[in-house]
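Sanity check

After download, print the first record. It should look like this:
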Amino acid sequence: MFVKNYLNKSQQDQTAIDYPYQYVAPVNTGVATTFDLDNNGEKTGNAGDAYGWGMYPGQYGMALLSRYPIDAAAVRTFQHFLWRDMPDALQITKPASGEPWFAPQEWAAVRLSSKSHWDIPVTIGGKKLHILAMHPTPPTFDGPEDRNGKRNHDEIRLMADYLTPQRAEYIYDDNGEKGGFAGQRFVLVGDFNAADIGDKHRPGVIEQLTEHPLVNSSVIPQSEGGSESAEESYSSRFTAYWGARADYVLPSKQGLTVQGGGVFWPVKASPLYRLVKDRQSSSDHRLVWMDVVLNED
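Expected structure tokens:
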């Protein structure tokens, strides 16, 4: 309905656009458990006790809109992958006692992905491009146990391991198929909630992807509006109003040529600044785009 009733119609004299192919699948946010995962003493089925923080199933979910056909039969999703099944997963302990944060029955059931991890093949001119999408939890809104920070690290690690054949053997998708990425071209996309510079940068987290040998991170999308912000510490590479590069488009080195990119953050003098002047206007994150060309196999 969003495509038909909004994108397919001109808005504010802008050219209408069509995305005839879409992919949507369940995510973990708001999916209730029977556990007290946030250790607040209540098993009420509230947002903190869901597999991923959310007030209802699907909140903060994901969708892919495409102008090119999606190979739905070959899609891999990792919504149900268990955190405990990641070798050397970052353990969460209670600061006061050093005991495990999760009870044994909870650790046996907790899913790693706070939303989901997707591998979606798209066919463009007879060539396959894999969209590797995810939305890890913010590494905040917790306590000294750093529960969300460690989860964010391991959610990003799952995608990094997925791209690394010698480290991907443990990974299984929601159909039970094991192993990692088997394609050639890919683009990593999503709100990764992992800053690469500044006071919100956690060393060794986003670098799992930006420094991955298969990832081309040489082009950093930027904007004029980001650096014009009232905050002196803001950078043109930031994608979130609260001051961080949190959203990424990272193409593969193989099979793709990057022609350019940017962040939709207009300057205050632009008539489009109304779309980003505050977090209520559209979003507290900015749209990131990148132009890539598919090379010959």
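If your output differs, re-run the checksum step. Summary of this record's structure: Residues 171 and 179 are 5 Å apart (CA to CA).
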